[in-house]
Amino acid sequence: MNLISAMENSIRDTVILGTGCAGLTAAIYAGRANLKPLVLEGHEPGGQLSITTLVENFPGFPEGIQGPELIENMRKQAARFGAEFMMGHLAHADLTQRPFKLDFGGSKTVLTRTLIIASGASARWLGLPSEQALIGYGVSSCATCDGFFFRGKPITVIGGGDSAMEEALFLTRFASKVTVIHRRDHFRASKIMLERARKHEKIEFLTDTIVEDVMDVKAKEVTGLKLRNAKTGKVWEFPTSALFLGIGHEPNAKMFNGQLDQDQDGYLKTSDFVFTNVPGVFACGDVQDRRYRQAITAAGSGCAAAMETEKFLEERGR
Ligand code: NAP
Fold this sequence. Notes:
The chain is of the alpha/beta class.
């Protein structure tokens, strides 16, 4: 029997949307508070940590820890305290009625007294038709997933932030050469990451450069890029075997449009850390944090969301 169908008629104390660092920390705390959280796993289980490599800045791991291992540990910890996991893509949420009603397509529905949104953020794309057509054929947003396929070949990374530097450094393991293309000549990346990339013998930079097209859609493989210099307007073709996007992320909050307050880029607005505009609905992690976006801050807000959930239920006699 489908697990969601089995849950249809029972009302949950809390449902947690997302299994990244924020969602799993919320699950650990909600589990320990005996709320028996139902944790919903969407398209990107484990969130961004599950597709990263070494995490060097999560306290408690002096030598660092692999992202997927950190996530797996959190998941086991949440399960130990009674969190239930299930796959499900939220199609629609009705936050106007109580309990809240979550629809997962067809007749699959979950009713819950509280909701913790930890749906994170997903990789941003340039939006070029040729880029979209070549995803999986040399265009990727995940160096750890796909870098291996381009052993000994020239690889290009787009972006000027920490993600782009991290991808570029990681890809030097495989590539003959990594070119970082950035649309400006100023970088958002932290000094330490930028310096590491600048010092690496395999990495070179092309600044003030815009990607106009990805070739070759007909051949179903990446053979090069059509580039334009943002200052001079000069256009040229640049040979490369793969294109990795490191241009940031977009919050996964569209399903709450019109119901929860969002900023101009779609991030959920929260007050006092985790409160949304609907009482009983809390948000944590990258879906509401455009400022810090770190694993440790996501974990901290997940903890706060679960503690506020417990308080909310307690005040209403649960
Ligand atoms: P980010 O800091 O927002 O940087 C995104 C970069 O992509 C910017 O340089 C931006 O250019 C560029 N960009 C955005 N849209 C573009 C487009 N359509 N075409 C071309 N370029 C585009 O995002 P991020 O690098 O993912 O980092 C997000 C947060 O996570 C940061 O706080 C970062 O420190 C953190 N992070 C930390 C680590 C680590 O510590 N190991 C690793 C990854 C990320 P402009 O500068 O011109 O806007």
